[in-house]
Request: fold
Amino acid sequence: MYIIERSPVAGALRHHLYCEMQIPGETMLSDVAIDWDVLEEISDIGDAGGAAGYKEHVNKLLQRYGIDCWLVTALQPVTAADAWQSGIFMNAWPEPWYRRYLAAGHYRHDPCVARSLESRRPFAWQDLSVEVPLHGSAEAVMAEARAFGLKQGVCVPLHAPAGGLAVVTMAGEAIDDAPRTVQILELIALKAFWSLSGLRPIRRPSSEQPPHLSTREREVLQWFAAGKTDWEIGQILGIAHATVTAHRRNMRAKLGTTNIAHTIAEAVRLNLIQL
Reply:
């Protein structure tokens, strides 16, 4: 695993986001500046000084997007649902909802849990019923969540250390779940999780393995995360520019990503590299 210094990663992500957010004929400097500021603040989560500091820092970031409650927890199979709360890293849910969720045994029927156990992609709660309409107990969980003020939400499934699964779920009355915002929320979730997971271990409930990247691919990705271009990486590693481009293309195919910034974020989420 490659450990990447905070500042180079933040700088690289700012650079890649800037390049990828440009639309021919349009000026987006104000949007880019906002994203740059947020990325700096994301990088600072790990310096917030323990769990209480992390919670306060993440709260301030998430409130910008209409999110006022969130939870970071390891995921257990529904067959072990009675003990799922032992895997919580940070609970910023409203206390009445948390008590109701436990008392009703909602974990066993929560469609967010089911989707997070199966998927490696962030998703908005509104997408849960797009492919298969929710019925019965699953719909009852979401209906009760709405009654407690968790009307909209986003979940970010994560691959934890030692191969375990975890999720960061974020919700509010009316949140910004536009695709660009979800990318930022994913980075916030990643950094919050890695900061919190350093405070306590996580149990491994699944044997699912992340996609394999070769040693060379990880090395190339490390340099991308440090802000280097294809040509610069080729010069550093002594390989052809076309070879670097091929590695970038292969990594995107393996991780199912759309651009290099997305590839960096996905590799961090899968514990292949770290912020």
Notes: The radius of gyration is 19 Å. Residues 179-197 form the longest helix (19 residues).
